[in-house]
Amino acid sequence: MSLAFIIITTTTTVVIITIIIIITVIITTTIIIIIIIIINHLHHQSSSPSSSIIFIVVAIIIIIIINHLHLHLHHHHDHHHHHRHHRHHHQHHQQQPHHHHHHHHHYHYHHHHEHHHHPSTSSSSSSSSS
């Protein structure tokens, strides 16, 4: 059971990493082609300021995409590296609904705390009226 789970998890991780690498290569290749086109366009129309702005925006987008993908890849690899199969299986089964419930419960508690403060004045006012 646990061995099969390790194999499935490892295979899934390898597949995800491979997909991310392929996507990164495709995006990088596309971006390089776009940069070449923009540079060529910039050389043809060096007087146009909009081309320079487009180049800067594209460069920023490239940096963000590469950083995000690298961070995601590193995080996924790091998560796989710190692997506790028994506990991970239990966490994976319960994590999403529990996490959502915990977040909702935290908000509800905060709202309830504020709401609890209001009837205190209302109760005092009612007592005073009586």
From TrEMBL:
Residues 120-130 have a biased composition (Low complexity). Residues 75-119 have a biased composition (Basic residues). Residues 75-130 are annotated as: Disordered. The chain crosses the membrane at residues 12-39, 51-71. Keywords: Membrane, Transmembrane, Transmembrane helix. This is Histidine-rich glycoprotein-like. It comes from Bombus vosnesenskii.
